[in-house]
Automatic annotation (TrEMBL), chains A, B:
Protein name from the UniProt record: AcrR family transcriptional regulator
Keyword Transcription set for record: yes
Keywords on record: DNA-binding, Transcription, Transcription regulation
Keyword Transcription regulation: yes
Naturally occurring in which organism (per UniProt): Nonomuraea jabiensis
Coiled coil (residue ranges): none
GO molecular function annotation: DNA-binding transcription factor activity; transcription cis-regulatory region binding
């Protein structure tokens, strides 16, 4: 996530990202303060700003780190693997959706998911980083689909990215646009619809 | 779109919304000013604020009005009808995506689409209005899918909303998250994928 290509002190990075993750999840986007993250991580503000020039950069690094923890598993059962992965994507969205709300409170608002989308739209460099994070992540998911296709478990003409966009897109659409819940049951329905087709 | 249920002067409304649409499309979200809209529409600011308390309310009314102009046509050919509708949704997203940019300039950023999503997430009443706008719109699109299903042109177990979410969701995901283009060619690929299924 370093935009400057400088050698990284991974131990310091990890401390910063852990503090930022805690603050973001507990207090939401509005409650994430770079000053407080620097203090909690025990580093100088200037050190923090050299790596993450703004709060938006830091928030995006948190999302990238959380996504990296979501494993994409290939068991050979593509229906199950896609459903499991979509459940993880949904859980990640829900985590950001309720960031900053009192524990247990649900929300129809997209919350911090929308703030991150807006930050990426507002600043060119944050947008470019955000698209990189998703491109890297989606390449992994596409490889899962490609393997299933190449082994004859999916139609030979399946376009992996279009299939992925139908699935992940539906989850983001519910969170960002219609305010409907996303969970395991929805992931199952969605994957079944995309695999079986409407015709 | 009136949040207060007051009788409407539709001619004044139309003048306000036309002025707001022009400003929003030409200058983007940052360039939309309620003061300037009131002046262009020739009404008192207080009159404008009574109906649209903030710029966010006004921007959402613009989106609702533009969406109402996108007809959903039922020719009996569900593949074509869904592709045509998705092309309209894509065109609407592209219009908002480049709002405020110099003519002809393309963008990987979501632009005003993201600003609207953030406004809906930030203010409960704007969020509720936004979800109403989409619920109304999506109910019309679902009826198109239901008719095709009930006439045996789609599988009997198709869930119209899930199908719609797969389609519209993929478009919004490209615009808001991955920055990829959405156009007629993509709408065709997407509808084919959703109808034919990946298995």
């Amino acid at each position: 996530m370093s935009p400057r290509g400088r050698p990284r002190d991974t131990e310091v990075d990890e401390r910063v990202l852990q503090a930022a993750t805690e603050l973001l999840l507990r207090h939401g986007y509005g409650g994430l303060s770079t000053d407080e993250v620097a203090e909690r991580a025990g580093i100088a503000k200037t050190t923090l700003y050299r790596r993450w020039p703004t709060k938006d950069h830091l928030a995006l690094a948190v999302v990238a780190r959380l996504q990296d923890h979501d494993e994409i598993t290939d068991t050979g059962d593509i229906r199950r693997d896609l459903t499991d992965y979509m459940e993880k994507v949904a859980a990640g969205l829900n985590r950001m959706r309720v960031a900053g709300l009192p524990p247990g409170q649900e929300s129809r608002s997209a919350g911090t998911v929308a703030e991150l989308v807006a930050a990426a739209a507002r600043h060119d460099d944050v947008g470019a980083l955000e698209r990189d994070v998703y491109a890297r992540r989606n390449a992994l998911a596409c490889r899962l689909i490609e393997r299933a296709r190449d082994e004859g478990r999916l139609r030979p003409d399946v376009d992996p990215m279009t299939l992925l966009e139908q699935l992940a897109g539906a989850l983001y659409y519910r969170v960002l646009i219609t305010g409907h819940p996303v969970d395991r049951a929805y992931a199952e329905r969605l994957v079944a619809a995309a695999l079986d087709g409407a015709l």
